[in-house]
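Hello forum,

I keep getting stuck at the same step: I have a sequence, I want structure tokens, and every attempt I make locally crashes halfway through. Rather than fight my setup again tonight, could one of you with a working pipeline run this one for me? It's a single chain of 381 residues.
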Amino acid sequence: MENKSNRNEEVMRLDVIVVGAGAAGIGISVMLVELGIKSMLILEKGKIGGSFSKWPKEMKLITPSFTTNFYGQIDLNSIASGTSPAYSTRKEHLSGKEYAGYLKSISDYCGLPVIERTNVKKVTYSDGIFQLHFDKTVIETRNLIWAAGEFQYPNKKVFPGSGLCLHNSKVRSWAKVEGDEFYIVGGYESGIDAAINLSRLGKRVTVLDSVARWQETTTDPSLSLSPYTNERLLQELPHGRIILKGNSEIESIKKKDGRYEISVYDKAKPYVSSTRPILATGFKSSLTLISDLFDWHEEESYALINEHDESTKTPGLFLVGPQVRHENLIFCFIYKYRLRFGVVANAIGKRLGLDTSELEKYREEGLYLDDLSCCGDECTC
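Reply #2:
Ran it on my machine without issues. Output:
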């Protein structure tokens, strides 16, 4: 580790910097520490697992946790070998706060070098060196892992008037949202989860979606509802409090006389709501701060990465977490993106001259998948 003075800024150089201490950041850091990397830091703008802690109280992980480590199969929501959220909490579907606690316990046990409440102001790159700028400090590295996630970057600018809506990520508990009737824009996981929880409180809900996610039948939960969400929806629909309207692309939302007019393309009259419409249209990329360090897919606007999950434009910049994508393979859930931890750890370890053969043990646990040819096959039944 090198420290030097540069006018009023203190400069520190490390082998690896990880930005983000959520599931992706903690998971990859555990593997790097086990490789023997000591010159590293994990930087978190809030607290460990902060995004999970901000979930609505009623929101749960859609993938079930189950302790099967004894039989060689890792818990679906685990991000480190030898751990299981199910074992830690004795629950199958954890709340956001419970999962954040699981991440914190791993960090403490492994002694991860996490610095909380540290917000990166700017990232610059020159001659193979990344500089992360803070108020009075600059940290340099040749290996930067971006694991900042998405939840803290809600997508609020979707159509004219979308700023009038209440984004679902700003809700701490659906029980505290006042009103009896609601319109939800977006019919994927977060939108349907909001509808289910509001219906359970006796509220009436209309879900507007440009397609109709609840009708998708693909086996990829990145494109269709998870079994957990679909099952809860089917249990709630008979009560008649949830109305699902597909083919409802929003044209605009306006506020008039204290009410909200929701205009839908190809619909003569707008829907009128006395409560703020709920926006469940997902999140922007956390890569905004470093977008110029990536090449981007022209049509679908995702960051282009190579076989090591490294930027095709900037060597040494690795992407870990829900924003990882290889063409039609979308790694937006924990059990998906953890598959690539070993790939990134191997690439960095070799560049630092370390023996990475120890990583081979993670293949059977689903933490090291470098052959994507077996992915993408649909189930036959």
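The helical segments are 23-35, 50-53, 85-89, 96-110, 189-200, 227-236, 334-337, 341-351. If your local run keeps crashing, start a new thread with the error log.
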